[in-house]
Amino acid sequence: MGSGKRSLTTAAMVLACACAVLSAPGVAYASPTPAPTRTPTPTPTTSPAGKDLEAIRKKLDALYHDAAVATDAYNAAEEQAKQQSAEIVDLARVIVQGQDKLDELKDRAGAAARAQYRGGGLPPEMRLWLSDNPQQYLDGAGRVLQGEHATKGLLAEMTRTQQDLQQYAKDASAQWQKLEANRQAKATAQKEIKKQIAAAEKLESQLQKKEKERLAKLEEEAAYTAQTAWLSSGVLAEISGKASEQGKQAVKFATDQIGKPYEWGAEGPGSYDCSGLTSQAWAAAGHGIPRTSQEQWKQLPHVDVKDMRPGDLIIYFDDASHVAMYIGDGAIVHAPRPGRTVTIAGAGSMPILGVVRPDA
Predict the structure, then answer these.
(1) Residue 284's pLDDT is what?
(2) Of 206, 267, 282, 326, whose Cβ has the fewest other Cβ atoms within 10 Å?
(3) What single string gives the DSSP state of each residue in 312-356?
(4) How far apart, in whole angstroms, are the C-alpha atoms of residue 213 and residue 217?
C-alpha cells in the first residue's frame, strides 16, 4: 500500500475501488473511504413489520462489542495459563535436579561420617604420644581437620539445598493455583462470549431477508459517516509515514488473510480474531507482540495518529477491545467480528482510542 501524502479524493477513490472488490456478503464495512462529497441516500429504519432497524443495529453492535471484550479476557487468560504451565514445568525440572543434588550430598556426607568413625577411638593427645612419627601424625591431623571443615560445608550445602527445594515446591504450588484461577477465568469468559454471540444471532435470525439487507445498508452507512467525518478533519493529509521493512512484511501477512473468517480465540491459519490477526502478522515479520488488543495498547509504544505508518496498529473503543492494522491511504485490515471475514475498512470507521507501533 502507498504511504506518501495523498489528497482526500485520491485516497477515497483507491479505497472505494478496494471496497467494491471486497464487498461480498459477510464482509464488514463495505465502503471504508468514500468520497466526502457523496450524500448517502436515507434508508428507512423501520420495517413493514414495525422493527426499528437502527435500534437493532445499535443493539447488535453492543452485543458484539461485549463479545469482543470477553474474547480479550479469554485470550489474556489463555496466555497466562500457557506461561504458568511453562513455569510449572521449569520448576518441576529444577526440583528434580535439586533432589538429585541432595541425594548426592547425602551420600557424600554419609561417606565422610563413616570415614571419621573409622578414624576414631583414642583421644587425639594419646594418639600423638603413641605415634612413632609425631610430624606424620600432625600432618594427618591437619588433613582430618580439613575433612571436618569440608564435612561442615557439606552439611551447610545440604541445608541450603533442602531450603531451596522447599521454596521451589511453594512456588510450584502458587503457580498451580494461578493456573487454576486462569482456567476458571477462561471458562467464565468463554460462557460470556457464547452468550453474547448467541443473543446477537437470535436477534438477527428474527429478521426477514429484506430487513437483513436494509440492516447491512445501515451498517455500511454508519461506517461511511464515521469515515467521512474522520477524513474531513484533514488527518489523512498529515499522515506521511513510510512503512519499515518489518511493517511491510506485517502488512503483507495481514492482507494475505483477507477473506478468512473471524473466530474468537483464533490465531490462524484458517481463521482469526482481531488481535490474533495482528499478533500473528507481526510474528510473521519476526517481531513478537502481546496477544490481546488491551495488552497491545498497554505495552507497545504509542504514536500520534498523524505520525502513523503502514504496519502500525490502531486500537479502537475506550476499553481497547478491538485492534486493526493500518495499511496506508486511510485504510485498515482487520478481523471485524463473528459472522464476518478479514477485510479492508476505513481507519476512521470506528472510534479510535490511539495508535501503537510494534517496531518503534
Answers:
(1) 97
(2) 206
(3) -EEEETTTT-EEEEEEETTEEEE--STT-BSEEEETTSS-EEEEE
(4) 6
Beginning with the edge strand found earlier in the chain, give each strand of the sheet holding 302-303 in spatial order. 302-303, 352-356, 313-316, 322-328, 331-334, 343-346
Please count the CA atoms within 13 angstroms of the CA of 71 that sit on its side-chain side. 31
Grid cell 413489520 in the structure block, residue? 49
Please, where are the H alpha helices in 206-244?
A: 209-232, 235-238
Give ∠ CA 276-5-240 in degrees, rounded to 5: 55
Asked if residue 344 lies in contact with residue 19, where contact means CB atoms within 8 angstroms, the answer is: yes
Q: What is the mean pLDDT of residues 275-286?
A: 97
CB 277 within 8 A of CB 325: yes
The confidence score (pLDDT) of residue 2 equals 42
Instruction: Decide: helix, strand or coil at residue 262.
Output: strand
Q: Which helix (H) or strand (E) holds 10?
A: helix 8-22
C-alpha cell of residue 233: 478533519
Residue pair 33/349 in contact (Cβ under 8 Å)? The answer is no
CA proximity to 241, closest of 287, 306, 297: 306
**Contact present, 331 and 340 (Cβ < 8 Å):** no
Residue 15 has pLDDT above 70, yes or no: no
Can you spell out the DSSP letters for 49-94? T--BHHHHHHHHHHHHHHHHHHHHHHHHHHHHHHHHHHHHHHHHHH
Q: Which residues are catalytic?
A: 274, 322, 334
Task: Write the single-letter amino acid at 178.
Answer: K
